[in-house]
Amino acid sequence: MKYIFIKYTLMLVGALLMGSCSNDFLEVKPKGTELEENYYRNADEAFAGLVAIYDQVGGTSNGLINKYIALNAASDDHYAGGGSSSDITDIQVWNNYTLNPAVGPQGPLWDRGFSGIFRANALMSKIPEIPMEDNLKSRYMAEAKFLRAYFYFDLVRYFENIPLFSEQISSDEIYNVVQADPADVYALIEQDLNDALEGLLATVPVETEGGRATKGAAHALLGKVYLQQEKFTLAAAQFSEVNGTPGGTSQFGYKLLDNFADLWNRDIKHHSESIFSVNHTGKANWADWECIACAEGNWMNVMYGPRDYSRSSTDAPDYIAGWGFNTITPNLVNAMQGDPRFSESIIDIQSLEDNSLISYSKGYDNTGYFTIKYLSLNSQKNVGGFAEGNYDQNVYDIRLADTYLLEAEALVRGGGDNGRAQSLLDAVRLRVGLASVAVSFEAIKNERRMELVSEGHRWFDLVRWGDAPTALADMGFVEGKHEILPIPLLELENTLLEQNAEYGGTK
User: 416 near 233, Cβ under 8 Å?
Assistant: First the structure.
């Protein structure tokens, strides 16, 4: 079952649900396996189907190619890192832009997106006939549409030319699927998000449902979708719904945290700045790296940790040893000099060794600088199961400072309210004690880079701004080619899909 179309159209629901339920509220444990056509008989099984869609948000069920790690490696802020130039080759080749249809991160990223889409379509096709309360039907349908839009938005940005599935398809239709006009994909995304706004809750109880999509998340994602298409006025209006008065509390309860460092305190989850996150628990349910699909915890913490880290003095942080991926580039280190966010974003591990406080192995593309946002202490290692992968730190997909700066961008680029754009930029800077600077497109670009280090936004930003050819030139980026990924080679076999022209195809 090498084609994702087959794998997820003919899925066994039990097997589907046994993937990594990385959201705190998703604790469904299926009993046995049942064919999809016999499933979704009641509200509990409908909820289990919803669990399965959310399960793909973290992308941990598709091997070691993680959305955030891969995107970081593709940017000018990070190297791929790891142990050698062949350590997770699919990430390395995006970092040096030698990827091709057979080698690169495109397979897992394609699988993640279409897995989520097929699961969403399966649930949406069943909801009308499930005996359950109307309010639950409305909410589950809205969440499924939000998630389908979320996955499609990533896919169309990665690949541009992708199939469009607005409903479930049968197995005999799979081989006749063709790619859609990207405009049609964006139209479905917009429709899904507007529909979802009707059924999503404004807020959810964070202790039991933290991580589920809300109206605020839908407005934020719709704003991103509009901005990507340069529909600046529409984008600004959506972000305004989320952001409210800059520096204040919005209608959905969003507010910038007072302390930037608190964003990385894993004991503070689903706070006022978190709009949509990948949730993780420390509950052990996997035994080794052979079963990434079993993971509920955050294994990015190990991926980012310095290799063979060992401290020789209690004056040094007691970090866990890891695999050394996504090392920080000198370019970013130099750019962040003097910024108050430096110490909460980057750590100079080499200086600790130079002062005889620690030792570590120099991995591939070692610069001595590592992202501190996702480093973990030994005291934070969860007991039981496969401890290396069971960290409970959430990962932000959308947070408020992100949407503040995106609204400011939409206003400046679209000729909107310059005063509001200034206030949005000022609020992000004031939080870390920085003085106001005149709002401009360049100022907003710089602020996004400083604020969102290692959070997976930089590559999308550079491509959207048209800055990628210059910023990534030294990494091998070719203008007119590397703005998108190739269609995975295996997806072209025995199907009507066409390779992107940038990679030798006809699409």
Answer: yes
Instruction: Report pTM.
Output: 0.93
Q: Where along the chain do its domains lie?
A: 4-65+105-200+484-503, 292-378
- State the residue for tokens 């909460």: 344
Phi, psi torsion values for 359, nearest 5 degrees = -135, 155
Structure confidence by residue, pLDDT tens digits, 216-260: 999 999 999 999 999 999 999 999 999 999 999 999 999 999 999
State the pLDDT at residue 77.
Answer: 98
Nearest to 146 by CA among 215, 202, 43: 215
pLDDT tens sequence across 170-184: 877 888 999 999 999
Residue 474's alpha-carbon distances to 164, 282, 497, 503, in angstroms, are 35, 40, 32, 20
Predicted local distance difference test score (pLDDT) of residue 389: 67
- 3-state SS, 40-72, equals CCCHHHHHHHHHHHHCCCCCCCCCCCCHHHHHH
In the numeric block, the tokens 């934070």 are attached to 380
Task: Give mean pLDDT, residues 207-221.
Answer: 96
**Residue 428, phi-psi category: left (phi > 0), alpha (psi -120 to 50), beta (remainder):** alpha
Query: ∠ at Cα 13 (188, 55), nearest 5°?
Result: 60
Q: Does domain 4-65+105-200+484-503 have CATH number 1.25.40.890?
A: yes
Strand partners, 396: 277
- Determine the 3-state secondary structure of 126 from DSSP: helix
DSSP 344-391: GTEEEHHHHHHTTSEE----TT--SEEESTT--BGGGPPPSS-GGG-B
